[in-house]
Amino acid sequence: xxxxxxxxxxxxxxxxxxxxxxxxxxxxxxxxxxxxxxxxxxxxxxxxxxxxxxxxxxxxxxxxxxxxxxxxxxxxxxxxxxxxxxxxxxxxxxxxxxxxxxxxxxxxxxxxxxxxxxxxxxxxxxxxxxxxx
Length: 133
Fold this sequence. Notes:
Blueprint: H1 2-10, H2 12-19, H3 30-40, E1 56-59, E2 74-77, H4 79-87, E3 90-96, E4 99-105, E5 110-111, H5 124-129, E6 131-132
Antiparallel strand pairs: 1-2, 3-4, 5-6
């Protein structure tokens, strides 16, 4: 059994390289998708604990802007955080696979943890993206 584990580990680098074999694809292939969900386990937004199983696989650097579909540029984001990033309310930076270092807003507001209904008197940006001043 130990020999079998050692043999599998010797193939590790080759198998990891296969995950990044199709960087031009718009969506991650099944192996990369499965790897990312197992690697990260939850949404990568700081403080979010939504299961990666229910998350969307997102490009840190957008595919439309030339971002590759690789393990270093993709990670699971829950629908809410994916929306914030796509809409421009958040900026995500991934310095290495699995390490999200920055998630900032484009205005000087902080995330609203309460109900969306409490945002009616706030600025248009805050109303739209769920943050408060």
